[in-house]
Amino acid sequence: MTKTKIPAIIILVLSLLLAIGSQTFMGACVHDDGSLGACHWAARVLSGIGGLLAMLAILALLVKKERAGLYLAMVPTALLGVFTPGTLINLCGMATMRCRALMKPAAMILLAFALAAALIGWLMSRRNHD
Amino acid sequence: MIKSGLPIRNLLRRPGRTVALVLLTAFLALSVFGGSIVVSSLRSGLDSLQARLGADIIVLPSSARSKVNFQELLLQGTAGAFYMSADALDRVREVEGVELAAPQTFLASLKADCCAVKVQVIGIDPEADFTVQPWIAQSTSRELGDMDVAVGCKVNANAGESLKLYGQHCHVVAKLAETGTGLDTAVYCNMDTMRTLLIAAEAKGVTHKISSGDGDVISAVYVKAADGYDIDGVMAKINAHVRKASAVRARSLFTGAADSLAGISRTVSILAGAVWALALVILLIAFMMMTRERRREFAVLRLLGASRKGLSSLILIETALCGLAGGVLGVGLAAMLVFPFTTLIETKLGLPYLTPGMGTILLLAIATVLATVLIGALASAFSAHRLSRTDPGTTLREGA
């Protein structure tokens, strides 16, 4: 296994955690009256971004020549995720709600690590390519 | 004489070994810094709650079943709904030794448009109040007027904004400082505003344990005993004088939280101690193995003119550098795991939780890094001492 694949494996794990986690253990809760808040849609977008990052990571594991480009594509994808909860899509008003107490910080940490791994992967792949 | 850049080159030459040592010390720093921050936050939370309550005695309706409901209301922000006649306030004021008495009425289960959850609305008498008013005064000099509210720091509304409660626009005049308790999700207003909100709720078909036609009811009376009076004595007099109500010492409400805090502190200390002891043993073994593996390298250095002291310091510097990197990494990881999840930890523990100030955090971080460097150096000192006593010629003759 080449060293340039290691960041892709890390990103795959992180993005799967994000995709599955934002629909399960760290997902938004349903209101008492059964209605869905903005948090619910933010969680869905985070799942989508997690899925997209996972697909990019799988592709980066499978191909060699385009690996650097795939890592580079992961950077804006992860950034989109960072700005999703609270900035692009509102979250619940109360700080004690699960979406603000758990989903947002957990997603931020997962995406920050994924972003760092993507940048490292891009640098490593580019050096190898040169 | 050993060149100053040699320890760093040695570490970079064997990245696997260096990463393992850094990760080990990082785990050590993570457990200590994380644990210290949690315990320190719990202590700050308890201190803040005691300061915020500001009363010596709290008089509650007998139906509040002693202090259980009230404790939950304070610590976890659960909706409190217990009431007694407002006459109890006058009766309390009649008791000798009572200097100040201020009523509060809790209106549970109000759903604000700001929030997906219900917020606890607490009605106060701004003229008599001495518990919340000093905290409101930190944000505004203005008294709570009709349809004015002061909100806890975790309610999503800022001073100057409008907060909609049952379709009624309330003007937010102050946002209170964080306490790390359920009070951070409360909304404070005067009694007239509370009555207006109750009528608005009824118009929307929402019922509460009290209705707008119930006359004057209150949930609690906060009492400050006059100087020179024994608080327990005043409490006994209130209990004898006021019917269908029971007075409790404010301090007793914290006893449960203080006990839990002591338990958590003990557990964290034991766990951190176990981690440190284990890490010390692992580091000792790791350094013994490492120096054994590198004994020919050290023998060559000795033959090239390196002194025993120089060799020992080489090992100590390498360890200190690993400890420093591990300490910084561990503190950083702990910060990433603890600070963003403050609200979650507070909710799960069900105890007052207030992150300490930046000064304390920095102090704890520096102490943790220093301790990590020190324990690494301590673990390697034994190996360094043993190595400096070995004859280089014998080592090289023995072979690998």
Summarize this structure briefly.
The complex is a heterodimer of chains A (130) and B (400). Chain A has 130 residues and is mostly helical.
Task: Describe the protein in words.
The complex is a heterodimer of chains A (130) and B (400). The longest helix of chain A is centred in the last third of the chain and has 32 residues. Chain A has one domain. Chain A has four helices and no strands. By secondary structure, chain A is an all-alpha fold. Chain B has 400 residues and is an alpha+beta fold. In chain B, 56% of the residues lie in helices and 16% in strands. Chain B contains 13 helices and eleven strands. In chain B, the strands form two sheets. Chain B has a nine-stranded mixed β-sheet with strand order 6-7-5-8-4-3-10-1-11. At the A-B interface, helix 4 of A face helix 11 of B.
Count the strands of chain B?
Answer: 11
Helix run count of chain A = 4
Shape of chain A: elongated
% residues in beta strands of chain B? 15-25%
What is the straight-line distance between the termini of chain B? 25 Å
Q: What is the mean predicted local confidence, pLDDT of chain B? A: 81
Shape of chain B: elongated
Give me the count of strands of chain A: 0
Tally of structural domains of chain B: 2
Q: Structural class of the helix and strand makeup of chain B?
A: alpha+beta
**What string gives the helices and strands of chain B in order?**
HHEHEHEEHEEEEHEEHEHHHHHH
- C-alpha-based Rg of chain A, rounded: 16 Å
Instruction: Summarize the biggest pleated sheet of chain A.
Output: none
Subunit organisation of the chains: heterodimer
Largest sheet of chain B: 9 strands, mixed
Taking the alpha carbons of the first and last residues of chain A, their distance comes to 19 Å
